[in-house]
Each structure stands twice: as C-alpha cells, then as structure tokens.
C-alpha cells in the first residue's frame, strides 16, 4: 500500500495545490482577518491628518477599538503627484502637514496600528505614484521611516513588461519579498493585503503572497453590490484559512441606501466568510444601530476564531437550484465549523419577508441522530434545542439569521 505522504507528493507533482495555511511572515503576522478602518469607502480622496486622527478617536469613543478593530488605514490620495528628486514618495504637504511619522506615532499612541496604500503598477488608481520598480524603497519608507504596519496593494496602471507577463503574480511577489525584508529590518508585524479584484484567479495563489486578496471588484453601498459580491465569493470559500483570506472588499455597513437588515446581512456574511472587516463609514454621523451591528461580539468572535480558520460555505441555494450563479440571488443557506459549534447563516434574498427552512443534516457539519442547542447570534438568546429540521419564521426582506448550534446529545 502506498502511504499518504507518497500520494500527496504524487498529486502535488502534477497539480498545483494552494498553500493550505497561507503566507507566514517571519513573525507570524495576520493569522486572523484584519479588523479596522479604511478611508476609501466614505471619504475617497478627501482625506487629511485631522480626519484620520479624529476618526481613530471616534473608534475609541464608540467602543469599536474594544470590539476588536485595531487598524487605522489610509487609502489612495495621500501623496504628492510625483516622487521627489531622490525617488521617494512624498506625503501631500497640505493634507498631511505634520508628516506621516507624526501620524503613525499618534495612531500608535492611541493603541491602533496604521495602514498605508500603494499600487503594483506605476500609479495608483487615482494617479499618484505606484511602487512598481520601487518596491524595496517604498517598503523601507512605509514601514521604516513612516512607521506603518499594513499595506494595501492595488492593481492599476500595470505596465506591459516581462515581470507582468512571465508571472501574473510577479509584481505582487516583488512587494512580498520587500515586506519580508522590512519585517526583519524594522522588527515588526506587517500585513500585506492584495487588491487584485479577483483577476487571474488570485484565490489560487494569494495565500503564497499575502494575507488577504480582493476576490472581486469594488463594492458599492447598495444591496445589489453586496449580493453580487457574495454570489461570486460563494464559489471560492475553500481558499480562506488562517493567514490567508479571501477579501470581498471593505465594509459598506452604514453607507448609501443599505437598510438596517441589509447592513446586518452584509456584516454577517463578511464576518462569517472570515473576511477582513474594515469599516468605511462616517464615524461622526454613524447611527447607534450601525455601531451595534459593527460591534456584534458573537459574530466577531467567529471571524477571529483562532482555532478554526475556514469560511462558511453554502449547503443549499434555496431560491435557485444548487450551484446557480445569480448576482441578485446568492445562496441562502450557509454553514461552517467554529471552535464553539456549527455556525449557520440564513439569508432572505427575496424582496418580501419569508420563512427559511432546512434539514439540519443538509449541512455537512451536522451529525445525523444528534440534538443541538441553538444560539441566535443577533438576538443573543439561547433558543432551546433542535434536531431534524429548522425553520426561521418571517425573516425580513434582505434580512439574515445567524445561529450557533452545539451538539448536546441524542435526538
Ligand atoms: C481601486 C481599489 C479601491 C480603492 C481605489 C483607490 O479601485 O479597488 O478599493 O483603493 O482603487 O483609488
């Protein structure tokens, strides 16, 4: 009989297996999905140091830091249009007049970590300098001189050259290597977030290069965008584990025309997909109900599960036949393991309230003939035990139910 190692080696020799646990930088950064704030979804290019620092202060005052959000990240548009004569990126002297080191010092003093943004092409998407050909120089600036801890790395203005052509991933590899070197040079944890929009099947190789990778295009603050992204991500949930996460893009919770129920559904899905949770709304005008959605401790605990790193996955589509690709009606019945039981997400993708019903053992994580206790992760109540089938009654339009089931004995 052939041993398992032989079989695995034989398979690996002709199939490229994704790295199961993702990139481990020398000091083990980013085992869990990053949680924090990013300026893009709400402010786009209208950023400056006062906004960033007062937003960080709001994260504290609103209890979001205590809820686990620890990164304060800049996105595009923080720099001057051109590098200086020495070849370095220079911060915009009006928007960031006290300088980036001062900014990261203050962010750190508030107990946060700080994130910066660049691009694997010659320019960022808004036309500022990208890091192409300057990877180590920029990594040294960002993580050394400026003191950042996190890099979002975008995909605009990509030159047509041999680096790009011979390895689609070449541009990202160069920055990964620059980050690995900066990690030891500056002795700090650095998170590397690839913004590759799902191109080139990034979920197959992202874990070898970074800690998260955008699986899809830019999210917008409308329900149709949430369902579109969720639908696409429903087919690649296997790519996520500790140290390497699918990134369905930053949260729009609190933005645009998303209703209370749509915000809850969006947050639930992102948390249970083990996505990075980056808030992107105005923290001055934020409604208390939105703060409470973003602070759902029980969902965050699953997002940050340090024992089980995998995502929920659909086990039944519901509205559509299983495995249907439908941007407006993604799968409705999802489940996955956690260190504390089996988690379920039931999504009402219809435009009217509905009962959502399923046979427990249709989830691959539920054992036949056993009984489970039911914890509701939105009402925060224990709702007795269940075996056989489960029905969530009258789930609102575009609403969600999140449950944690624990095995308690025979049915
Ligand atoms: C791209 C990214 C966005 C944002 C903008 C900034 O569109 O996908 O998340 O970073 O660039 O210009």
TrEMBL record:
Question: What processes does the entry annotate via GO biological process terms?
Answer: carbohydrate metabolic process
Q: Which GO terms describe its molecular function?
A: alpha-galactosidase activity
InterPro entries, per the entry: Aldolase_TIM (IPR013785), GH (IPR017853), Glyco_hydro_27 (IPR002241), Glyco_hydro_b (IPR013780), Melibiase_C (IPR041233)
Signal peptide: which range, if any?
1-22
Outline the extent of the Alpha galactosidase C-terminal domain. 329-405
Reaction(s) catalyzed by this protein? Hydrolysis of terminal, non-reducing alpha-D-galactose residues in alpha-D-galactosides, including galactose oligosaccharides, galactomannans and galactolipids
EC numbers on record: 3.2.1.22
Q: Which keywords has UniProt assigned to this entry?
A: Disulfide bond, Glycosidase, Hydrolase, Signal
Q: Which domain of life is it from?
A: Eukaryota
- Family, similarity comment: Belongs to the glycosyl hydrolase 27 family.
Q: Which PANTHER family match?
A: ALPHA-GALACTOSIDASE B-RELATED (PTHR11452:SF61), ALPHA-GALACTOSIDASE/ALPHA-N-ACETYLGALACTOSAMINIDASE (PTHR11452)
Q: Mind telling me what this protein is named?
A: Alpha-galactosidase
User: What species is given as this protein's source?
Assistant: Crepidotus variabilis
Lineage of origin: Eukaryota, Fungi, Dikarya, Basidiomycota, Agaricomycotina
